[in-house]
Predict the 3D structure of the following.
Amino acid sequence: MKRTLVMFSGIMALAAFGDIGVTAQQAPSDSLKGAWLLSELVTGPGSPSTSPLPSLTLFTDRHYSSMAVIGARPKFAPGQATDADKLATYDAFAGHSGSYEVNGNTVTLHPMVSKNEYMMGTTPRAEFKVEGNTLTWTSMLGGVRAVAKYRRLD
């Protein structure tokens, strides 16, 4: 459960990052505007996970949307899922969307919709840095520090 919360906090932090003042059709290489894929996650001492579960976050000028697989999901044939399969699949997914604001290297999220009802109405914050096609950010959730890197898809 703690790993799920830490991974979700990293995803939540990424979703906060946004781009201010970019009006061109093609975002500059240091912009957060576009699509980002999680490529590395460090949630404590030890080596980073360089094969994290799938996650995609999209940024526009003022809004974001983030979805991620955060745990193992059962395999089953279409239409053949048991209630336990459905619950495990639901628990292994995170998603939220909303608006954001940037102040220096800190981003504040304003989730408007979320799979986790307790996230809506909150204002999570994270620190970030963009270097070319790599986005690095640090988030804290319940005293657990998560550092994640994303790769720009476009």
User: Anything to note?
Assistant: The chain has one domain: 2-152. The beta strands are 34-42, 55-59, 63-69, 93-103, 106-114, 125-131, 134-141, 144-152. The helical segments are 2-16, 83-91.
